UniProtKB/TrEMBL annotation:
This is Bifunctional P-450:NADPH-P450 reductase. The chain holds residues 1 to 459 of 1057 of the full protein. Signal peptide: none annotated. In the N-terminal section; belongs to the cytochrome P450 family. Heme binds at C403.
Length: 459
């Protein structure tokens, strides 16, 4: 016997579109989860959604045989900019298969290890900047972590130096990308007729896509002008053939994937580092243990590749950060056929989209206990992470459409966090600051500023 699925009050035509906050939509989804429980139904301008937020339901829909990644809402609109790049391609689109097979090895452990020197180079630019600015300088970590991660993906994957640390403001790509993603989110909850008459907004949207595309085209043109035999991602896309079909990527698909990597490859990781810094400052005991570990493993020496696997507490900090604040906080799937989930309790017709509210599901007390809202890296240590129920920690998505860049992001984040902790103590600019969010497609702390103080007796 299936149970009925609750739904908040709605209004004709718009459905629940007006119930979703414009600036931080995630806040509305979380509040509704608190009010209606592990599953509720929404109708956004005719799109029928179930929003789920328990670990059990998240596990139930994590099955590539029964559910597929659904391209609708904001994600479908992101296709306006990046087309059939890996992130926004439909499962059945041949270009997804070709790019996936070609690029998976480039994101394997061995290739990522080769990127260590370039990752370290950029992490050192960041520590140098904070050192030179000194303890009085008010740092905007989200901004500088964006410089770091944007430059890192461009250098490691495309051997292209953006030199963001040598610019006053941010690279034009960054603002255009943020505005483009915000507008994708807004459009998804706005009637098409209204969007069609918003002439200025639409012109800006097109302009933002152009700004982003120009950078991708410039990177490709630069490579054609100055070829290299480096086996980086760009060369693989330009010159390799799919082992299964023998096909190469088309020029337009290369551009789409380049753009995809420039976007997906930095936005989430800079959010991860910013949240990690916030949680550490708010948890002096965790900060003390992190400093202790870095001192023990690195001492006064610059981090080496072989240190990475030894930094277990730093690893646990990042895992716990991704649990509490998964920077890609929701993903969507659809069943291939009508199906029931939750031990047969909930009926999901095949024309419904299931939105996985990861940020709530990863705080499910049934898995994480009554203190599930608390930042406690210890829950990720000593085999506890490996012993978690399946799919209860899922910030990188699931299955065939899971994040291809996970090992890249992880290595990059460990290097940066360890290098920063080796040198600095951190304090809040405003001691009373409590976490606020900003959201484009991903989330980051908003209005979060810190000071970096040199650690006494450290190099
Ligand atoms: C897919 C999260 C870093 C490239 C995904 C998905 C998630 C995710 C949740 C699945 C989305 C869905 O199912 O709709 C993250 C997080 C990161 C991160 C939290 C950092 C902390 C990266 C990096 C890259 C990258 C560094 C590239 C270097 C991609 C791509 C996909 C993807 C290309 C699409 C894969 C496919 O569908 O074949 N990511 N990501 N991500 N990510 Fe990441």
């Amino acid at each position: 016997m299936t149970s009925s699925i609750p739904t908040p009050p709605s209004i004709p035509f718009l459905g629940h579109a007006a119930s979703i906050e414009r600036e931080v939509p995630l806040r509305s989804f979380r509040l509704l989860s608190e009010q209606y429980g592990e599953i509720y139904e929404l109708n956004i301008l005719g799109r029928k959604l179930f929003v789920i937020s328990s670990a059990q339901l998240m596990n139930d829909v994590s099955d590539d045989k029964k559910f597929y990644k659904n391209m609708s809402g904001p994600l479908l609109l992101v296709r306006n900019g990046v087309g059939d790049g890996l992130f926004t391609a439909y499962n059945e689109e041949p270009n997804w298969g070709i790019a996936h097979r070609l690029l998976m090895p480039a994101f394997g452990t061995a290739s990522i290890r080769d990127m260590f020197p370039d990752m370290l180079d950029l992490a050192s630019q960041l520590t140098l900047k904070w050192e030179r600015f000194g303890p009085k300088h008010r740092i905007d970590p989200a901004e500088d972590f964006t410089r770091l991660t944007f430059d890192t993906i461009a250098l490691c994957a495309m051997s292209y130096r953006l030199n963001s640390f040598y610019r006053e403001g941010s690279h034009p790509f960054i603002q255009s990308m943020a505005d483009f993603l915000v507008e994708c989110n807004l459009r998804a909850n706005r009637p098409g007729l209204l969007t069609s008459i918003m002439v200025q907004t639409n012109a800006k949207y097109e302009e933002d896509i152009k700004t982003m595309t120009e950078l991708a085209d410039e990177i490709i043109a630069e490579r054609r002008r100055n070829p290299t035999d480096k086996k980086d991602l760009l060369n693989i896309m330009l010159f390799s053939k799919d082992p299964k079909t023998g096909e190469s990527l088309s020029d337009i698909n290369i551009r789409n994937n380049l753009l995809t990597f420039l976007i997906a490859g930095h936005e989430t990781t800079s959010g991860l580092l910013t949240f990690a810094l916030y949680y550490l400052i708010k948890s002096p005991e965790a900060m003390r243990k992190a400093h202790e570990e870095v001192d023990e493993i690195l001492g006064d020496q610059q981090i080496q590749l072989t240190d990475i696997s030894k930094l277990k507490y730093i690893d646990a900090i990042l895992r716990e950060t991704m649990r509490l604040s998964p920077t890609a906080p929701m993903r969507t799937v659809r069943p291939f056929e009508d199906i029931t989930i939750g031990d047969g309790k909930y009926f999901v017709p095949k024309d419904y989209t299931v939105v996985i509210n990861t940020i709530v599901a990863q705080r499910d007390p049934a898995v994480w206990g009554e203190d599930s809202d608390k930042f406690r890296p210890e829950r990720m240590l000593d085999g506890k992470f490996e012993a978690l129920p399946p799919n209860s920690w899922q910030p990188f998505g699931f299955g065939m459409r899971a994040c291809i860049g996970r090992p890249f992001a992880w290595q990059e984040a460990i290097i940066a966090l360890a290098a920063l902790l080796q040198k600095f103590e951190f304090v809040l600019d405003d001691p009373s600051y409590e976490l606020e969010l900003k959201q484009s497609l991903t989330i980051k702390p908003a209005h979060f500023y810190v000071h970096a103080l040199p650690r006494e007796g450290k190099p």
